[in-house]
Amino acid sequence: MVQVDIIPADALTREDVTLWRAMVGANPDLNSPYFRPEFTQVAARVSPQAAVAVFRREGQVVGYFPHQRRGGAVQPLAAPMNDYHGIIAHPGQGLDLGQAARLLGGSRLNVGGWVGPAGEVGETRDTCQVVMPQGYDAWYAERRQTWGKYFKDKERARRSLETEFGPLRVEHGLRDGGLLDQLIDLKRDQYRRTGRHDVFACGWTAQLLHALMQTEGQDDFGASIAALWAGDKLCALEYSMHAGDQYHFWFPAYVPGLARCSPGILLSLETMRRASGEGYVAFDYGFGGEGYKKYFCNAHRSVTEAVVLRPGLGARISQSAVGLLNLAGDGRGERLRTSIRRRWAAIEACETTPTDRLRGAAAAARVALSRRIAPAGKPA
Fold it and tell me: What mean pLDDT is predicted for residues 71-96?
């Protein structure tokens, strides 16, 4: 029988951290910066209502799960910023998603990138990676042969950017708070233009990125910025985390007026070239969706997205509503539910007061409905 203790992250002992590291080292599924104890220690200082669940079987610790609570909901720690999450455990020793939800005891457990066994719960999604065991040059040669037109176009874009503004210059491994503030401003402008929830409006999420940049020097875990200039003009920025041989691209941003020159893509290419020379082998791009990723990525990881509800009326009503919406045909109910669920998960995780959550939910519902339910004969 498994028991759970919920403790503050700063109550983890030195023995806990040592065991945590051993679990991550032994379990290939946990090879990501998000599973490092450093990420939990930093995020728990910043994210409201943060905690760690310590799972024990016959008195022995068998797993850890860093998380946060928003009302009755349980979420992975630092959601919606956390791309990968799950039970920190040795291979075959962890709990599945349903077991974890029951032991955590909230009204629901909401996960977007669960790594590990999930049973029959949720749906599978893929994230995409660039894996280059033979280095950048070999990867680029293969990609250029496979997608010649695309990469030739990016080479032309590079020449165009240089012609218009001056020689290109890339710096990576930067830990400049001013550059990070510029990146956040660009992302917030992007969220306004696209109608997405502004994940930085709440404040603590920006604090998280700043705090993670200060962890460099703790083993091989860190976070940093790469930047691209053309002449004196700053064109693109990208915030990433890295640990071991993994480099996780996290928040990219570029000057919108330069989209024709693909500065964000040029920055990613140069960042991978340099980081590969430093020993990084895998570059994680998170979930697909952006068109350029298919030209870059040559590997994927499967994760689970799910909302595990406490059994009862709430779960029945949710499924009934989807069924009614689907009567309209073409699966609109399920698509609408998925869209709103993802938007709501981000809003609920970011906003810590009921008033802010309500305001965000109302805005998200308006956007989702306008995009998903369109008049007959017109695309949604």
Answer: 94
Which H or E element spans position 68? strand 60-70
The residue ranges of DSSP E strands in the chain, in sequence order, are 2-7, 50-57, 60-70, 73-76, 108-114, 123-131, 168-174, 222-230, 233-243, 246-254, 282-287, 299-309
Tell me, what's the pLDDT at 311?
67
Are 158 and 270 spatial neighbours (Cβ–Cβ below 8 Å)?
no
For the CA atoms of 223, 230, 297, 337, the dihedral, rounded to the nearest 10 degrees, stands at 70
295-299, 315-319, 351-355, 372-376: which is most confident: 295-299
Model confidence over 136-171: pLDDT tens digits? 999 999 999 999 999 999 999 999 999 999 999 999
50 neighbors 5 (Cβ within 8 angstroms): no
Distance from chain centroid for Cα 284: 10
Rounded-to-10 torsion of CA 254, 256, 258, 264: 30
Quick one: pLDDT band at residue 317, thresholds 50, 70, 90? very low
- Among residues 98, 102, 92, 20, the alpha carbon closest in space to that of 54 is found at 20
Residue type, 302: S
Spatial separation of the C-alpha atoms in residues 193 and 187, rounded to whole Å: 10
User: How far is Cα 87 from Cα 34, in angstroms, rounded to an integer?
Assistant: 12
Distance (Å, rounded) from C-alpha 236 to C-alpha 59? Answer: 51
pTM for the whole thing? 0.89
Closest by Cα among 144, 115, 51, 131 to 297:
131
The residue whose two tokens read 């209502």 is 49
